[in-house]
From TrEMBL:
The keyword Membrane applies. The chain crosses the membrane at residues 41-59, 71-93, 113-131, 138-156, 162-180. This is Uncharacterized protein. It comes from the Bacteria. It comes from Cryptosporangium japonicum. Keywords: Membrane, Transmembrane, Transmembrane helix.
Length: 195
């Protein structure tokens, strides 16, 4: 498989991630029904995002430097942590009462979820700083602002988190579309003109 094909697959994974995050947001806001299908797909965007983020990082790695590597690693770790949280929420906690869930996430688990959110937020900021020169600035800005708001889940009203997912998803769609379209040329040629 060529590098170009790998980047196109990563771009496609990012596009699908953005769409599925929007579906999750619609479900959270009761605009889509909550059922076995919509619950089951909830963790899928985090799985796809791991591949998409890797493609986005590798595309710009030659100019990203050490900060880019650190931002990518933290962002990837944060998304992996979110995958665990989404899986727990939709598969492990699904049949438990609210009191049982609260008892489970009290103490160490709550600290773990806060650490995941903090790592994801820091990774998002660093990844956005490095991506500012490599991708359209509107997409990077939406990605950063949106996912920073989403990282505040549990500390801010649900509507703020939903707006965050909406903005972050739009940003990810923009980044992924750029990677998809530009992947037929050499990676170094993309890292030039922000839109």
């Amino acid at each position: 498989m060529t590098d170009s094909a790998r980047y196109r697959l990563a771009g496609a994974a990012g596009l699908l991630t953005g769409v599925l995050l929007l579906v999750n947001d619609l479900r959270r806001e009761d605009l889509l029904p909550e059922n076995a299908v919509t619950e089951s797909i909830a963790p899928v965007p985090a799985v796809l995002a791991l591949f998409a983020l890797t493609g986005l990082y590798l595309w710009q790695r030659h100019t990203a430097g050490t900060l880019g590597l650190v931002g990518y690693a933290l962002n990837l770790a944060g998304v992996a942590g979110l995958l665990i949280a989404e899986f727990a929420s939709h598969f492990l906690f699904a049949d438990l009462t609210t009191a049982e869930v609260e008892a489970l996430v009290d103490g160490r688990a709550r600290v773990g979820f806060l650490v995941i959110a903090a790592v994801f937020a820091l990774g998002t900021v660093l990844f956005a700083i490095v991506s500012w020169r490599a991708f359209p600035r509107w997409a990077v800005a939406l990605y950063a602002v949106g996912f920073l708001l989403a990282a505040l889940r549990g500390a801010v009203p649900d509507v703020v988190v939903s707006v965050g997912f909406l903005l972050g998803s739009a940003g990810l769609l923009g980044l992924s579309w750029t990677l998809w379209r530009a992947s037929s040329s050499a990676p170094a040629r993309v890292v030039a003109a922000p839109a």
